[in-house]
Every structure is written in C-alpha cells, then in structure tokens.
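B., you asked whether I could sanity-check this one before it goes into the benchmark set. Here's the sequence:
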Amino acid sequence: MSDNNKRGRLFVYSGASGVGKGTIMKRLLAEDSTVRLSVSATTRAPRPGETHGKEYFFVTREEFDEMIENNGFMEYATYCDNSYGTPKKAVEEELEKGNNVFLEIDVKGALNIIRDYPECVSIFILPPDFETLEKRLRKRATETEEQIRFRLETALREISFSDRYTYNVVNGDIDKAVEEVLSIIRKETGRE
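And here's what the prediction gave me:
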C-alpha cells in the first residue's frame, strides 16, 4: 500500500462528450500521483498507436466471455459489435496499493457501478451550458452534422442523470474544474 497504508478510493467519472473529461483527466494524472485511470478490456482490434495494457487490454471474444463467466468485470457492455469491460482484478490491485482509481465510463455503466459499489465516489462533469457544449463539439470538426446532433441528444439524456452522482463539476474554466476535482479527491481520501 501507499506510504500511509490506506486503501485507495474508487471514483466513477462521467460526463457528456465534449465537456472536457479527457482534458481534466490528463491534468489529474499529472497533478496527483495517487490517481490511476482504469484500463478497460475490449474485443475490438487495436488502432494504430494503441498499446495492450495502456489504452486497453485487447482480448479475444473467447477471453472476454470467459472473464464474464468468472465474474471478472465490475461492469461491461457491448457497442457496435465490440465489448468493453472494467476488469475487477486490475482495479483491486491499484486500490490495495493505496491509489485512487477512476473509472471513466458512460452513464449506464456508471449507474451500475454506483449501485454495486456504494462506497464509490461519483463525479459528473457538466458543461457550463448547452450552447457551450455544442460549440465545443463543432470546434472539433471531426464529425458530421448527424453525428453532432446524435452526441447532443445523448448529452441531454446523460446530463439528466447527473443528480445520481455524488458530485457535479461544471467545466466552464479548465483550471477551476481541475482544482475542484482535486479538492474532491483530497476530501474523499482524508487528505484535506
């Protein structure tokens, strides 16, 4: 375990596409040495530049199904014929080391974790307003109009569940949002 022999905390981390979750997470990883981002297992093929064990644990359909049978996932789901899951063993190992493990997952998976692991701390990242979210998605210039509309509709649905989370953090200013999440970590781990 860590220097203080304390078990780490499990954090569930969600937010709609375009709210800045990834940017905040990069800063958390750089600024708090106890923060670990959970690595999911997936049946999809690696994309160029992706490494097994870093972005994902790339597994076969058979290996994935075996993990399900052996209760090896905290949660799992299938999207576009590919399955994704949070391996229990890897998360548990990090928690035992005293690290704080963040599961960056969608609302459906998050609600399952919140139900099954009531001791977890859940954080939902919100945009300052819907117009800002739409501008951020359009600024990316990586998606069609139809894809942007789909992401915005999904965002509205996901945001409607934000009240089920322990904390809501509005990302109107990245520095303030990062500091607020770091403050939550300190509070929830007794490091205030």
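One thing to flag: The chain has a mean pLDDT of 92. Otherwise nothing jumped out at me.
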